[in-house]
Amino acid sequence: MITVKCFARYRALLGFSDVQLPAAPTLGELLADPRFQALPKDALLAVNQTFADRTAPLQDGDEVALMPPVSGG
């Protein structure tokens, strides 16, 4: 299983703070799940606390984090 954690406004947008999903070969394939349909394309993605892109490979037991882009000034 893969643990997916949503942070900040993505909790409300997706309707959950964390969810367990069956392992997928890549992060992109995992995010193809209909539960992530509302996830913006500019979301920051991390696998096991390291920033990643949608081509990142996944394996059973990984943790994925979904975070909105950060802005400031």
Explain what the structure shows.
It is a single chain. Strands 2-1-5-3-4 form a five-stranded mixed beta sheet. It is an alpha+beta fold and 73 residues long. The chain is globular and about 40 Å long. It has two helices and five strands. The model has no long low-confidence stretch (mean pLDDT 94).
Highlighted features:
single chain, 73 residues, alpha+beta, five-stranded mixed β-sheet, 2 helices, 15% helix
Structural class: alpha+beta
Q: What share of residues are in beta strands?
A: 25-35%
Strand-and-helix sequence, N→C?
EHEHEEE
Distance between the termini: 39 Å
Q: How many distinct beta strands?
A: 5
From the alpha carbons, calculate the radius of gyration and give it in angstroms.
11 Å
How many domain modules? Answer: 1
Largest sheet: 5 strands, mixed
CATH superfamily: Beta-grasp domain
The CATH C-level class name: Alpha Beta
Percentage of residues assigned to helices: 10-25%
Query: Mind telling me which CATH architecture this is?
Result: Roll
Order of neighbouring strands in the sheet with most strands: 2-1-5-3-4
Mean residue pLDDT: 94
Q: How would the blueprint of this fold be written?
A:
Elements: E1 2-6, H1 9-14, E2 18-21, H2 27-31, E3 44-47, E4 50-52, E5 63-67
Parallel strand pairs: 1-5
Antiparallel strand pairs: 1-2, 3-4, 3-5
